[in-house]
Write a structure and sequence with these properties.
mainly alpha, about 45% helix
Length: about 90
């Protein structure tokens, strides 16, 4: 049940779009190709188990943790209410 000017299912459509965008962004950040034996950033060896677990890996665990913490998620406001825009 939608309220106001929105149609039925509009909220679920917004949720679905947000999830779809997040999945697409995560897939775009995934490594591809052949794994490196040494980290591209620090030069330390990448363990064989990591290279098998994450095909296409180019960084060691420490450097990848730093990269992951630097990822910023979109703050795109899909809601039209004033409350959501004031946050």
């Amino acid at each position: 049940m939608a309220g106001g000017w929105s149609r039925d299912g509009a909220v679920q459509d917004q949720i679905d779009d947000t999830v779809s965008d997040a999945v697409s962004a995560a897939r775009a950040r995934m490594p591809r190709g052949e794994s490196a034996e040494y980290c591209d950033e620090c030069g330390e060896p990448i363990p064989q188990k990591r290279r098998e677990a994450v095909p296409g890996v180019r960084t060691c665990v420490g450097c990848q943790s730093g990269r992951d913490s630097a990822v910023r998620h979109s703050a795109f406001n899909r809601r039209g209410s004033k409350d959501s825009q004031l946050r």
